[in-house]
Amino acid sequence: MNDHRHTTPDDITEIIRQLVAHYGLWLAESVHQLGLEAALDAEKEAGDRFFTILSGKLGRALGIRPQDLLKKTDQETMDKLGMALRSAWLAADGVWFQAIEGQADINTAKRVNDTCWSRFSPLEARRAKAVLELPELGGISALKAALKVRMYAHLNRWEFIEETDNSIIFRMTDCRVQSARKRKGMQDYPCKSGGITEYTGFAREIDPRLHCECIGCPPDEHPEEWVCAWKFTIKED
């Protein structure tokens, strides 16, 4: 006999937690079994289908057409919701790092972190290309457009400088993670290895001709006006 109890708010939280974990585990194992390129192709197919199904199920459950789920939300609330979700993404990154560091050590946590970025950055770039409908070889202009819609673009302060037809420098002028550490009297987190993985993977996915060069990133010394800086250049074969 099935004895179902009523769903509680805690149940909804648990369902979301397991849904996110299960989706992520499928992606991680797909990378392991198929390689990153094929796994990202699979994510495109599975993700498009899944979120169509999800919006339909939520719409029917709430008595709202899928396309109207968020349309009636005012802009200020939408902006707050977007910031809450993006900052939650950053918090998830932090608590996982701390958990692995506690289970093992900081070097193990950094290896896990760098591996995650080697997979997430290309995924984030692909999603930006899909959402913005960027061309396959969009060069510097496509890279700029994609960098503007990243998660970090809404959380940190940044700037473009020294732009040419074939190159550009991207600088992070205020980083939430590093600023929080500074307020606590802590040294910069040495994120250079993760940053190289992150920005190299992101740029290559936007346009395989793009080459990423680290100008400076902690533990490198840096001036007060920026935390890390990256130069992107089109390299023709």
Shape: globular
Query: What is the strand content?
Result: 5-15%
Radius of gyration: 20 Å
* Cα separation of the termini: 67 Å
* Series of secondary-structure elements, N-terminal to C-terminal: HHHHHEEHHEE
* Number of helices in the DSSP assignment: 7
Can you summarize the main beta sheet? 4 strands, antiparallel
Pick out the low-confidence regions: none
Calculate the mean pLDDT score and round it: 91
Side by side, the strands of the main sheet go: 1-2-4-3
Instruction: Provide the structure class.
Output: alpha+beta
DSSP summary, beta strand count = 4
Helix share of residues?
A: 55-70%
Report on this model:
It is a single chain. This protein has 237 residues and is an alpha+beta fold. The protein contains 7 helices and 4 strands, in the order H-H-H-H-H-E-E-H-H-E-E. The protein has helices at 9-34, 36-62, 75-103, 106-132, 139-147, 176-183, 192-206; strands at 157-161, 167-174, 210-216, 228-234. Strands 1-2-4-3 form a 4-stranded antiparallel beta sheet. Strand 1 (157-161) and strand 2 form a beta hairpin. The longest helix is centred in the middle third of the chain and has 29 residues, at 75-103. It is globular.
